[in-house]
Amino acid sequence: MKNDETSIGRKPRFLCLHGFRTSGEILKNQVTTKWPPSLLQNIDLVFPDAPFPAFGKSDVRAIYNPPYYEWFQFNQDFTEYSNLDKCFTYIEDYMVRLGPFDGLLGFSQGAILSAALPGLQAQGKALTKVPKIKCLIIVGGAKFKSRDLAQAYSSSIEIPSLHFLGETDLLKADGLELLEHFVDPVIIHHQEGHSIPRLLDAKGLEATLIFLDKIKKHVDRKTPPIIHTTIIVGYRTGYPRPASKDAAIMPSETNATVSAVPLPGQANGNASASKNTMDTVKNVLGKWRKKATGATKKAEVLAGDMYQHLKTGPSFADAAVGRITQGTKVLAEGGYEKIFRQTFETIPEEKLLKTYACYLSTSAGPIMGALFLSTVKLGFCSDNQLSYKLGEQTQSTYYKVAVPLHQLKAVNPSTSKNSTAEKFIEVISVDNHEFWFMGFVYYNSAVKNLQGALLQAHSLICTNLNGESFKEHKLRALGEL
Q1: Pick from 3, 25, 134, 392: CA 20 to 30 A from residue 337's CA?
Q2: Taking the mean position of all CA atoms in its chain, how far away is CA 376?
Q3: How do 258-260 and 230-231 pair as beta strands?
Q4: Pick from 14, 346, 56: nearest CA to 212
Q5: Which helix H or strand E contains 273, and what residues bound it?
Q6: Is residue 23 among the annotated active site residues?
Q7: What is the spatial distance between Cα 242 and Cα 264, in angstroms, rounded to a whole number?
Q8: Helices assigned H by DSSP within 313-396
Q9: Are 346 and 304 in contact (CB under 8 A)?
Q10: Where are the alpha helices (DSSP H) in 99-171?
């Protein structure tokens, strides 16, 4: 198994703050062209633009095309700052809508911000609506010099941090002063100036990879192993999807095998209990269908959905037992809202909107669970733990998927060619990973609400804090609006 992709856990996710009067796209170009694939494949990077169009000329205008942005404004001595509060709010809003993020990567002005935010967050002065910053990568950094921001450095910063210092960087002395406030920082010296280093030195690259491995373990200890479009259970970062609407495959690169861990009381000795439960369920379904005949179309659809839900699993009886047991569990644990927050990493403002009993299609067969739709993410968790092979060991865990709503590209309902009763919902992420859900108890409601969440998420992404669309924002930066 490939250690970077098949091990349980996830790649750390960083919000990358660009330099003064540049842009997210410029920083992305600098990082992805200068850092090797062996490093980039171990980290997830997101590159936003700063909130303010550049108020003056950019130092990179001869190399990179506009638009250019800046995070805040400052005086000549760098002791007074304008719009910092708006900057903090902008970053926090971005993290709420497009997070979660594990850490910050900052260059130049972005590095000054990144280095100060953990301390300000600890003091309750910034980023109060998002999870704690867990790690930092600082390139060409320095401190804020204002007394009003001294609290950012009043306590030692204990989170893992990686600092790049250029030998000919005019800010090198400021970067060294910044280091005094960090506990056990990793420092990489390079021969370049105030720029993203190329990491041509083997020792520097090795130190960076060791740091990333360290923070990966740190992140896994601090948060549940769930991130955007990532399936946990030891699988490679490939995604279970049916080869057609009637079959499912697992990427060939994985050697993971999955099997259900039986529910308590579901062993062979309880076959009679399972049979009694199945008989009960059949009786209930029969009554539903009789009522549906003389009642409403909605009742008939519900009865059909429930029947199809139980039929989707490998065993009708086991599915019935599992569904009843899960209902008891939900009541015992205080409802789906509480289960959702225990299962997934959430933010305080996040609200659970809908929960649907369904199955996720995998090469090991459909996995029964619940699909959670919140104001921030779409998440799936299996009802039972699943066992899987990790090397020579057999381990068990819940099968989980989490996709932030802004990462959704499409929600496509479909029906099996062989049976119109077999209905699916295909969820596609922006990076073209596919998830197939099936056996919904409330299929039509699921389609309606998932497609509605997709539309709403996309409309939010297209609006910045000032109510401008991104197109309007770019035009304003270019002076064309």
Answers
A1: 134
A2: 10
A3: unpaired
A4: 14
A5: helix 271-294
A6: no
A7: 31
A8: 316-332, 336-343
A9: no
A10: 109-122
Q: What is the mean pLDDT of each run of 10 residues along the chain (481 residues)?
A: 39 93 94 92 90 92 93 92 94 83 95 97 92 95 92 94 94 94 94 90 89 79 38 27 32 30 36 47 52 49 50 53 56 72 83 91 78 92 73 72 87 81 86 84 91 81 47 45 45
Kindly state the tokens that stand for 157: 């910063």
Strands (DSSP E) along 144-232, which ranges? 161-166, 186-190, 230-231
Bridge partners (DSSP) listed for residue 105: 16, 137
Q: Which is catalytic among the residues 189, 194, 218, 406?
A: 194
Pairing of strands 258-260, 352-360: unpaired
Distances (CA, A) of 87 to 28, 311, 344, 354, 465: 20, 53, 28, 33, 10
Residue given tokens 């000549």 in the structure block: 76
What is the length of the chain? 481
Q: Report how many helices (DSSP H) and strands (DSSP E) the chain contains, helices first.
A: 13, 19
**Catalytic residue of the set 18, 23, 49, 108:** 108
Name the residue with tokens 């491995």. 213
Whole-model pTM: value is 0.52
Q: Which two tokens mark 368?
A: 């029964």
Name the residue with tokens 């970062």: 237
* Distance of alpha carbon 399 from alpha carbon 230, whole angstroms: 11
Written as six digits, the tokens of 452 are: 């509605």
Q: For residue 322, give the 3-state DSSP assignment.
A: helix
Note whether 205 and 39 are within 8 A (CB): yes
Per annotation, catalytic residue among 169, 305, 318, 383:
169
Q: How many CB atoms lie within 10 A of CB 453?
A: 21
Q: Which residues pair with 455 in a beta bridge?
A: none
DSSP-based three-state secondary structure for 98: helix
Residue 289, CA distances (Å) to 146, 224, 415 in order: 72, 42, 22
Collapsed DSSP state (helix, strand, coil) of residue 380: strand
163 is catalytic: no
* 146 annotated active-site: no
